[in-house]
Design brief:
binds pantoate; 282 residues; Pantoate--beta-alanine Ligase, Chain: A,domain 2; single chain; 39% helix
Length: 282
Amino acid sequence: MQIVTDITHLREIRRSWQTVKEVIAFVPTMGNLHEGHLKLVKEAKKTSTKVVVSIFVNPLQFGPEEDLEAYPRTIQRDTEALEALGVDLLFMPKAEDIYSRGLEQQTFVEVPGLSYMICGASRPGHFRGVATIVCKLFNMVQPNQAFFGEKDFQQLQVIKAMVTDLSMNLSIYGVPTERESSGLAMSSRNHYLTDEQREIAPLLYAQITAMADAIKSGRRDFSVLISNVKSALSEAGFKPDYIEVRASDTLLQPGHEDKDLVILAAAFLGKTRLIDNIQFTL
Ligand code: PAF
């Protein structure tokens, strides 16, 4: 596995692959890799001839009160895991090269609408930061395909919209969420949970799964269902942020004609904000 930190070097390698018509798959990450990330890499390997993974903890997508400094950095372990999977290139750029004119001056990419709702309403500027870094990384790596986890469902929709809106020439693949045996969605943020919080955490997915089942069996009183889930989570020790039922393609409130739905959820356990979702069809 080649480890590259320099953008010019990355471009040289990318150019050499171009001449032999390699199919390049790209998995952008912020490191602290878990089984969910490794699944993205495994999926990427199935459809490509070269796999590039990036590790970059992107300051532009963290709010002022969020955990940028505390975000876990586990480069040694991550590198070994990627090497073992046969990744071709690990790109680990430096923040000063990515944002060479400074964060304040940075040109940004923003997908309106989708970026402002749900998670975007709770985390203003977050999806602008995500879209900007993903666009920049796409420009550097120039992949034919890119892989993202469905756990960050709204992020996936934002990126798909950006690719469509900016006529980018690559395919975006969503990969189903990897879960622990308890049902808890794998996330870098799970490391922050205490043993006691880990016991409670699977309730988030259990609650939205039960809610999806209720909707599938005919319930349409979404606001009652949402309020019941929030109460159950609060009683267990969560501080719910949002529980939403949306049309899975647009993330808008579902109309009668919408059959493909998603329940999106975010809740705090202590200081840790967990997110999850479940997609289903009526
Ligand atoms: O999902 C993530 O880890 C990040 O949001 C991403 C896509 C790597 C952009 O920094």
